[in-house]
Amino acid sequence: MEKIIIIGGVAGGMSAATRLRRLKEDAEIIVFDKGPYVSFANCGLPYYVSGKIAQRDALILQTPESLSTRFNLDVRPLHDVIQINPDKKTVTVKNQAGIFEASYDHLILSPGAKPFIPEIDGLQDADNIFSLRNVPDLDKLMAKINENGAEKVTVIGAGFIGLEMAENLKQKGLAVTIVEKASHVLPTMDEEMAAFVTQELVHQGVRVITSQSVVAFKDKGRKIILEDGTMLSSDITILSVGIQPETALAAAAGIKLGFRGGILVDDHYQTNLKDIYAVGDAIVVKQQITNSDALISLASPANRQGRQVADVIAGVTRQNKGSIGTAIVRVFDLSAATTGLSEQAAKQAGLQVEVVHTTGKDHAGYYPGATDITLKLIFNPESGVIYGAQAVGNKGIDKRIDIIGTAIKGGLTIFDLPELELTYAPPFGSAKDPVNMIGYAAMNLMEGLSDHVQWYDLTAELATGKVLLDVRNEAELKANGQFKSFVHIPLDDLRSRLSELDKETPYIVTCHSGLRSYVAERILKQAGFTIQNLDGAFSLYNTIKPEDINHV
């Protein structure tokens, strides 16, 4: 009988096990996991903290008993594989009864990733510092939260998990401070898009500290010292500064490691050792857009990889095509999502990059409850190849990022986005969906109908003698704020007031979201003026550079 051993019973490992059973009814399939739980919803852990997920048992998706009953799998929690013996095709396993060896015909490694624990003075002496990767971590944290006197929480790291923890701890009733070493929260997103998230955090009462790292813990973790000397009081601290692949076992067996210590696999998930495969957060994948090595720790790719490696072992041809990294996070009443490369990452990869921002509604504006979606597209200005996209908004951003992520996977370009036929009825979308519209905006740039200036270039451009022209209405200036230096002509008055503008002066035109300013740009260009459009317009600039806006 063919014998398959899987190390790791979450996401990729369990996906491989169940798929293997569907393909190989007669095989012996054993899953070893060093933890007490398998097939648990680790992405749901933060939501139990706040009580949104009321029952702890809801996080346990399957048990060894249920997996045995339905799939005839031999699932063994609290079984720590301490050694792989590739020459003998065995693994050495430690459990509560002792140490034993188990043989395999095929071995699948799905060890996942572990929290990165930085070397910080005083960390070892602290008794109030937690990470959150599994159910035991959750139990320890909840016990600490429920102790009398816990009021102040510090979250170190403002990535996706850190923000989810901040939201849920705040909703638990605790005072929350976020500390992030990077210049802005959500470092994988571009700065101006992340600014919307910072704005929401502050609005909800979360203290946000960026461009600072923790240098020391004092008083058993109750005092946190930042690099600028600031001291924070903290009853509980969450470390969320990143993860690293769990690969010590693989390395000890002679399995080759690559980028940032991840396990190297080929297109069929095989390591350099015969009959040993690896999937999930621990493996090096190809960033599908750049074909560069990457670690992409997301549940969806891990589950796909588990299914595919099962197909490979069963003799079904499958290829690991890599990942583009599509992710979303909710922060109170705002959501932020990304797919593919950020503008920063695309430039660092040496790609020729153009970006465009648009603001639209999640459904028809005339239907009650419509909210803004700010969308950013990153693409090649010569070929139209889409590199990535980002979105922020109250709702509906998952749909738009999923669509663009699918477009990237399918090899579509910006010219295809307006052609996409997306569902429309007033409660669900618009006849001109934000995805269609950002495709049009990108086409306008490529075809020379529009020329724009990015938010980070505005100050320098104005310093060359260009003049900012704001075509919003007077009421908007009073209600929302205004630039410190500008010329004001409402769009509806523009044609009749062209004489007030100088054709020898280059202008940068803006409105609230960019729609009216594009109309103004077309009017002025055809009238012989030199015009550029402020990409993202006032709403974007006001979010990222509020200090440059006057409120009267």
Q: Gist?
A:
The chain is of the alpha/beta class and 552 residues long.
List the helices and strands and how they pair.
Blueprint: E1 3-7, H1 12-23, E2 28-32, H2 45-50, H3 64-71, E3 74-76, E4 80-85, E5 90-95, E6 98-103, E7 106-109, E8 113-115, E9 129-130, H4 135-145, E10 152-156, H5 160-171, E11 175-180, H6 191-203, E12 207-210, E13 214-218, E14 223-226, E15 231-233, E16 236-239, E17 243-245, H7 248-252, E18 276-278, E19 285-287, E20 292-294, H8 299-313, E21 327-331, E22 334-340, H9 343-348, E23 354-361, E24 372-379, E25 386-393, H10 397-409, H11 434-446, E26 452-453, H12 458-463, E27 467-470, H13 474-480, E28 482-483, E29 487-488, E30 507-510, H14 515-526, E31 531-534, H15 537-544, E32 549-550
Parallel strand pairs: 1-2, 1-7, 2-3, 7-18, 9-16, 10-11, 10-16, 11-12, 26-31, 27-29, 27-30, 30-31
Antiparallel strand pairs: 4-5, 5-6, 8-17, 13-14, 14-15, 19-20, 21-22, 22-25, 23-24, 24-25, 28-32
Helix pairs in contact: 1-8, 6-15
From the coordinates shown, what is the CATH architecture of the largest domain? 3-Layer(bba) Sandwich
Mean pLDDT: 96
Assign the CATH topology of the largest domain: FAD/NAD(P)-binding domain
Indicate the overall shape: globular
CATH class category of the largest domain: Alpha Beta
- How far is it from the N-terminal to the C-terminal residue, by CA? 79 Å
The biggest beta sheet reads: 5 strands, parallel
**Roughly how much helix do the residues carry, as a percent range?**
25-40%
Number of helices: 15
Q: What is the number of E strands?
A: 32
Strand arrangement, major sheet: 3-2-1-7-18
Give the amount of beta strand, in percent. 25-35%
Content-based structural category: alpha/beta
- Low-confidence segments, given as residue ranges, are none
Q: What is the CATH homologous superfamily assignment of the largest domain?
A: FAD/NAD(P)-binding domain
Radius of gyration from the alpha-carbon trace, in angstroms: 27 Å
Query: How many separate structural domains?
Result: 4
